[in-house]
Every structure is written in C-alpha cells, then in structure tokens.
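Collaborator request, handled under Task 6.
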Amino acid sequence: MGYERLYDTISIPVAVTVHEFVCDAMGCNTYLRLVTSDEDYDRLIQATMNTRLDLDPPDDGTYIRTEDDARTVAVEHYQWQEGTVGVQRDHLYCPRHSTRSRED
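Structure tokens returned to the collaborator:
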C-alpha cells in the first residue's frame, strides 16, 4: 500500500499584521484578533496561509490593509459595535455588550 503525493509543500516567508481589538465594556476581556498578510498573494497561496496562520479574510473579498479596514470587518462580519455617543464614541464593544444583542 502506498500513496501518491499530489503536491509539494512550499514554504513562503510571510509578513503579517495583527489587528487586535478588546471590548471596551468594564470588566470584559473579550478580544478579536484579525491576522492579515501584508501583501496580496494569489488565491492558492492565500488559502495555504489561511490554514497555517489563521489569517481570516472575509468571504466577500474584503482585504484588510489598515486599522480602519480591520474595524470595519469587526463591525460588519463579527457583530462588534462602535460606540457613537458621548464617552462611548470610537470604542468597540463585543457582541455580548453591543446594543444589537440587547435588541434581538
């Protein structure tokens, strides 16, 4: 019994950026970590990186390049919420502490 190797494993040095958000609710330690590659790679290599490095680009093709892109992905794809009023302005809240979860 044997097996046929269909492809060779390749090793590619990859520079990554980690965007980490921590819920700003008092006493909450929930965090969201988005790891993205610093360069655009073709789909085959990107799929390999996703598996090995837990890179998590959204399925709709959004590519995270900046901190603002990462915040947008956190809000649109992971149900985090940005504070908009008073002292909550520019703070991020996890789904458990967002007003969306209280309304549902």
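The cover message to the collaborator said: "Confidence is low (pLDDT under 50) at residues 46-55. Residues 16-78 form one domain. Please let us know whether this matches your experimental observations."
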